[in-house]
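Escalated from tier 1: adenosine-5'-triphosphate holo job.
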Amino acid sequence: MIRLSAVSKTYPDGTEVLKSLDIEVNEGEFFVLIGPSGCGKTTTVKLINRLIEPTEGEILLKGREIHTYNIHELRWNIGYVLQRIALFPHMNVAENIAVVPEMKKWDKPRIRKRVDELLEMVGMDPAAFRDRMPSELSGGQQQRVGVARALAADPDLILMDEPFSALDPISRERLQQDIQNLQREIRKTVVFVTHDMDEAMALGDRVCLMKEGRVVQVDIPQNLILHPADDFVRTFIGDRRSPWLTAVDVMADADSPRIVEERDPKKRKGPLFLRDERGTFLGRLENETLDPDGPVLSNDTKLRDAVRVFRENRTDWLPVLRGDKLIGVLSHRHIVEYLERTAHTGEVKG
Ligand SMILES: Nc1ncnc2c1ncn2[C@@H]1O[C@H](COP(=O)(O)OP(=O)(O)OP(=O)(O)O)[C@@H](O)[C@H]1O
Ligand SMILES: [Mg+2]
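Tier 2 regenerated the structure:
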């Protein structure tokens, strides 16, 4: 969807802000840019919608160099949400949201329908808010209108530069949840800037950690934790292994002797987990009865949630499923051993 190749940006005063940046964002991806203040996140986002020009390098959008687009066409097809939304103060909510559709010359009924739909989407009752002025909205509501405005003309790409940083923790969490649901529904490509690691972990399909104008590591959130590229990543991320680890990281995999494919295996102590030859989970075998409906973990169950499932079900063994496939088993003991293994060395995995 977007590809930055060897992009550098040096300001006229000689400040070298980006140093040969390579970033690739896939179609439909929620891509998070994170890094310390001044590392070049905002600069990167502004390069993408051509608010600033690179000194060197190439930026492709859908395979086309961004300069080959008409600048208006480019901007209209990119939704942009800034840290502090600047709504037009003399326009009401509906007019603010309709700015790009108006420029695209959509007809009135279509615009009106779209405005109401977007207000619903960001959790604001259209009847109550459509005609309000920005000064009659709370900060969180203004931010929501800003998100609606960025989505208004159905852009292919949404750039969000610390959109929630001015909000209180509760509004922030709600908006995070909303934007995540929204992105899952509409599958837009989103580039999201933050300097909050929890926000990055919660939202990102992939997270790109930057430092001093360079990319340090790009990966799925879990891998930044499990396999940090260097000490900078480790420090930046802090110790968040335990809450973010999933059942998969610790389980015994599909070769575990607890996993069987026959209904009447040799007697073994404790439960066994039965699957068919295609790997589909059939149930838990214990005391010669098969229970197909017992508790299971899924591959993305967080370890701390897994611990709760163990406790609530008073069991020492749980199957781990990806979809309907049995991919491993997890025991209470695995978790304890894992924590013992990693607690002292700071090493993760094995
Ligand atoms: N017009 C300019 N001229 C010179 N230097 C600039 C200019 N604009 C930005 N910079 C510098 O570029 C660097 C990167 O700025 P940028 O705004 O991209 O950082 P950021 O990662 O978004 O930081 P923050 O988290 O604080 O928003 C900073 O050191 C900043 O001072
Ligand atoms: Mg910034």
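The chain has two domains: 2-242, 247-345.
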